[in-house]
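ingest -> fold -> write
write: protein_1
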Amino acid sequence: MKLQLVAIGKAHETYVKEGVELFTKRIANYYPVEWNIIAMPKNAATLSENGLKKKEGEIILHALQKDDYLVLLDERGKQLNSEGLASFIQSRANESIKHIVFLIGGAYGVSDEVVKRANYKWSLSQLVFPHQLVRLILAEQIYRACSINRNEKYHHS
């Protein structure tokens, strides 16, 4: 199973880059993993919120493959604890899912079409985080889940 972490926006900011790279490298000990940072549309500043979500949605949907299992990070999604995420990832592996895509949408969220395409909606927290920090949290939590599934000590260290 391959994991892809997708975010709309700029490259990783300096203050999160080192952590994101560290946890992504650790995840690679369990699953092939890559980041895909999708640049905002060139005319983003001229678009309405809905127009921007629609344009970003088109880019996202175009980048997805038919069989990709899309996990949308969404404040209205289901909250999981670390063990729950570990179980979720293991269940997808047991189902022979070949490619899981974890998507962090744009500043205004994602289009209705992307929401409909999502196989699962996951909320990290009821709190609101900067998108850059969400990248770091996502990478760390996926690594934590992988270590839980292997019964390694990281989760309780």
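write: protein_2
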Amino acid sequence: MNANYFISHLQLQPHPEGGFFKETYRSEEKIIAEALPKRFEGERNFSTAIYYLLRQGEHSLFHRIKSEECWHFYAGDKLLIHVIEPKGKYYYIKLGSNIYLEETFQFVVPAMSWFAAEPDVESSFSLVGCTVAPGFDFADFEIADKTNLLNAFPEHREIISRLSR
């Protein structure tokens, strides 16, 4: 099973930040706006989930959301998730199934952190899932402007230049 098999079988569609996705879950129940932190405008579903796939040579652009996002590894090869926290701390994790090589099956990106993902150089593709709580809403989604991100975090010039536009 290769990337094209999963794209077809799971009916994945192009994602605005790069790669392919399909929403698989959106809770019917909602959190009222007054119960959410002030960074949210309006109510949100309790939780949402997607499949997400990147092929070698593809990446997700640096972006951020107002919720925490839990990534889950499913199939393929190692995925690198790059994170820049609001105060500028940069790190990356290896999402995958080889715990002997410091890969992890799950990882949570902190709310309001800038993050991007790409298959490792030796990876042909990565099929993962993303669960967001409070649920994902495009009103909470911001793709980074390269110039603005470089001005905010010039010490991370190489990774920002490569994974933003």
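write: annotation protein_2
The mean pLDDT is 97.
DSSP finds three helices and 14 strands in the chain.
pipeline exit 0
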